[in-house]
């Protein structure tokens, strides 16, 4: 996040939009840490993170997939997802519970968008047109794909894992999740590091 702030003005349009997601993640992480420090429940922050984070990523993918997937389709999916996650937080898995349904749907949508981006970036014409940004986009897209595909089953089965697994296995499961979260942020850093320098 610090690296993104320092270099924000020199980034291209697509990477600037992606930085909004990084800024949001940083704010939520700090707020979550503060809640943990004061012994407060921080699940509300996860509900906010999902509801605001997915539109940020959809905006980023809308820029990347311009002329490949119609931007209206991405915004329709985003609005439907927002309605779903708000309904889930208000009526089904309220803000004091883990919002596994919204997280699972978000993971599936991000995996679809990241696979679409891989397909787009394999095209020779696109490679030539985006030769200055393709390395950055590949790293960022890979970070998102690795994290959301590795976390999908954890999100989906998290209630079963928490209720039936021994505590030690639950800890290993979330350690596995944290590991792939670190991999994702490493990929983001390398992606921004490889930004066009001119």
Helix count? 8
Largest sheet: none
Which bin fits the share of residues in helices? over 70%
Alpha-carbon Rg, integer:
17 Å
The low-confidence parts are: none
Structural class: mainly alpha
N-to-C SSE string, H for helix and E for strand: HHHHHHHH
User: What is the subunit organization of this protein?
Assistant: single chain
Topology, number of strands: 0
Amino- and carboxy-terminal Cα gap: 21 Å
Mean pLDDT: 90
Q: Strand percentage, roughly? A: under 5%
The geometry reads as globular
Give a written overview of the molecule.
By secondary structure, this protein is mainly α. It is 81% helix and 0% strand. It contains eight helices and no strands. The protein has helices at residues 2-7, 13-37, 43-64, 71-92, 100-121, 124-129, 134-164, 167-193. α3 runs antiparallel to α4 (71-92), α3 (43-64) runs parallel beside α5 and α4 packs antiparallel against α5 (100-121). The radius of gyration is 17 Å and the shape is globular. The two termini are 21 Å apart. The model has no long low-confidence stretch (mean pLDDT 90).
Provide a compact summary of the structure.
The chain is mainly α and 198 residues long.
Which labels suit this protein?
single chain; 198 residues; mainly alpha; 81% helix
Question: SSE layout and pairings?
Answer:
Elements: H1 2-7, H2 13-37, H3 43-64, H4 71-92, H5 100-121, H6 124-129, H7 134-164, H8 167-193
Helix pairs in contact: 2-3, 3-4, 3-5, 4-5, 5-7, 7-8
């Amino acid at each position: 996040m610090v690296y993104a702030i320092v270099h924000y003005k020199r980034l291209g349009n697509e990477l600037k939009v992606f930085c909004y997601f990084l800024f949001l993640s940083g704010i939520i992480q700090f707020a979550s840490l503060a809640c943990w420090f004061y012994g407060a429940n921080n699940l509300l922050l996860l509900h906010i993170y999902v509801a605001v984070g997915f539109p940020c990523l959809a905006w980023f993918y809308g820029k990347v997939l311009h002329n490949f997937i119609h931007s209206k389709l991405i915004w329709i999916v985003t609005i439907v997802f927002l309605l779903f996650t708000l309904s889930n937080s208000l009526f089904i898995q309220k803000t004091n519970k883990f919002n596994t349904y919204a997280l699972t749907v978000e993971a599936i949508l991000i995996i679809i968008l990241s696979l679409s981006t891989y397909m787009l970036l394999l095209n020779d014409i696109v490679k030539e047109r985006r030769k200055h940004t393709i390395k950055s986009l590949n790293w960022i897209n890979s970070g998102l794909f690795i994290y959301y595909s590795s976390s999908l089953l954890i999100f989906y089965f998290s209630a079963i894992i928490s209720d039936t697994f021994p505590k030690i296995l639950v800890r290993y499961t979330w350690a596995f999740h944290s590991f792939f979260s670190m991999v994702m942020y490493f990929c983001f850093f390398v992606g921004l590091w490889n930004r066009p320098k001119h």
